[in-house]
Amino acid sequence: MTRQMTGANMIVQALKDQGVDTVFGYPGGAVLPIYDAIFQQNDIRHILVRHEQGAVHAAEGYARSTGKPGVVLVTSGPGATNAVTGLTDALLDSIPLVVLTGQVPTFMIGTDGFQEADTVGITRPCTKHNWLVKDTDKLSGVIHEAFHVATSGRPGPVLIDIPKDVQFANGTYTPKGKVATGHYKPTVKGDIAAITELAEMIEKAERPIIYSGGGVINSGKGASQLLRELSNETNFPITSTLMGLGAYPASGDNWVGMLGMHGLYEANMAMHDCDLMINIGARFDDRITGRLDAFSPNSKKVHVDIDPSSINKVVHVDLPIIGDVGHVLEDLLKVWKSRGRKTNKGALQQWWSQINEWRAKKCLSYTPSETIIKPQYALERLEALTKGMDRYITTEVGQHQMWAAQYLGFEDPNRWMTSGGLGTMGYGLPASVGVQIAHPDALVVNVAGEASWLMNMQEMGTAIQYRAPIKQLILNNERLGMVRQWQELLHGERYSHSWSESLPDFVKLAEAFGCKGIRVSDPSELDAAIQEMLDYDGPVIMDCLVEKHENCFPMIPSGAPHNEMLMGDASTQDAIGSTGAVLV
Amino acid sequence: MSALRLKKGASKKSAYDLKDPNADVIETHTLACIVDNEAGVLARVIGLFSGRGYNIDSLTVAEIDKEGHMSRVTIVTTGTPAVIEQIKAQLGRIVPVHEVHDLTVEGDSVERELALFRVHGTGDHRVEALRLADIFRANVVDSTLESFVFELTGTPDKIDAFADLMRPLGLGRIARTGVAALSRGK
Asked: Distances in Å between the alpha carbon of A16 and those of A3, A9, A38?
């Protein structure tokens, strides 16, 4: 069935055909026809953000927490350029997004028209693919193809730039199933010979580790189940990147914690000393590997990834398997089971006792305080007070993000939304809005630092407009904590521009926005404050004043290998308290 | 002072400074990509090279299938073996790229480039230029009393050699197309 309709109606129809229920956006001159079409229907809900960057991060939160693509609608020129940071963030973290931008009419393109920008040119390197549609007849086809590209293979953001005259003009609508989605069909099934080789390696391994990543989350809930089965059936220890948290439950027996620069001691030591590393849907990011020429020197490395360009990009692997994590894990388990479910049990037992020795170091211990709230303590209490709840956590970027990853436990996939690859300060608040819109009844907490939070704080307005009861837990140290930490470690304690001389009163700010504000600075009042935040039926900004000079440990300093971690040290804190404070 | 200072990282070097172990072996490869002939496709290919810091020695592009809207992009690039592999994988990720062939490793191939040379001269130089052009099987495509324009097709090496010979004979401007390449047989 083909129908004639305007480009604007075609967009709404195509989104409906794709099962879209929510669009995050901000209107402007070049998208007015689309907003007019949205006004005249009720199937798609439009969430009006306060800044286009917020729209993209909200859509990322929506996508990451639902497994569905996030959809964004913004205008030309500044609307599109404001979306660039979000697009880049989604590209680095492989989040499926479809971003629709308005453009000046086709006959004005190239004339430096009002609010004209070369949007496809600007966004070419920060999207998986983008299109400029100059013909209304082609519009619906491009939208359907865009959803296909965004969600298949390694997911990512795509952008469709739509000139205003194309939105007004009439054209023929092509339904979803009638569109040839082109030649783009990434391999999902892994090579069975390679998978069999991996099964053989699993049988022989003496010191194996599973190193899983965000690809497991992207592959879907089934992939997380299969990952759990693989680890549990083989009794192999499993670690994960920041992006992969929740794929294997933190309460699981074989969980050794997050790895990487601020990963757990036991996870990094196991990575360094293993003889078989099974990378499942991770990409050997530099925050993970540390010093490359000393990275896990004695292991055979296996890499399962849907993106062939991830293979051998930074770390040479012995056995690459290109395919979707879920498909590969399914085949792997089938092959391994059919071969008799063998593992080297004796060696594994020794390996586990070694890992338990590393665990005994208790790398996450910190010096408690009865007078000042330690940020780690705040997160431990959040964890304790939300235990068993179906909880969604977003974060901003910095120390608090790493502490959240260390001290909060994730039992399920799609519950942890953070900006991993790009490290975008200002991600967490809009992302929490997007998550809450997708899960209206769930507890959504944004663990934030005050500096990051201020970067997109305008999105509190969005939360209040849509009655999204997001909880903003701001660990306020009046510092750019991670910058401060690096200046202490690497720049002779010269704290150049890493603290705020003027911060808003967050409680008054909350009141100004029309939500609840809570301030807490006494550790003995922390539990009550967190409980008040959780119990309040509406958005809350909680200003949690924490220790100002706390450093995030453990830490692999840049240029060091996994087995040379800096550990938290009680004497360090005192030293900074006296001498460091003078400099601050 | 801070206990941290004593325990500071084993190395002051950042991970970014670490040298690529294969950095000494630089290879030249000729890659051929079959792409959708759509707006911006060349920008995607070139942007990939500039954005990721790869080299382009030569690049040619033209439509090869009008009905199917397909173009062939031939790129001569240099890099370590690992970088060449990355380039191919990254090219393969571009949505409108259908095929990526490394003609340097996929068996024998032929490479040709077309060049135009303007050579100014009179007397002996003019005669010598014409004689050398004949040896190289270059065609004269334009002629005045003081100049020739030669058209020469061949490998990049042959074109370089002809340019070297023409230089003392009054070589003016050169226009080169870049390499077009195709595998042999099959």
From this structure: 15, 11, 11
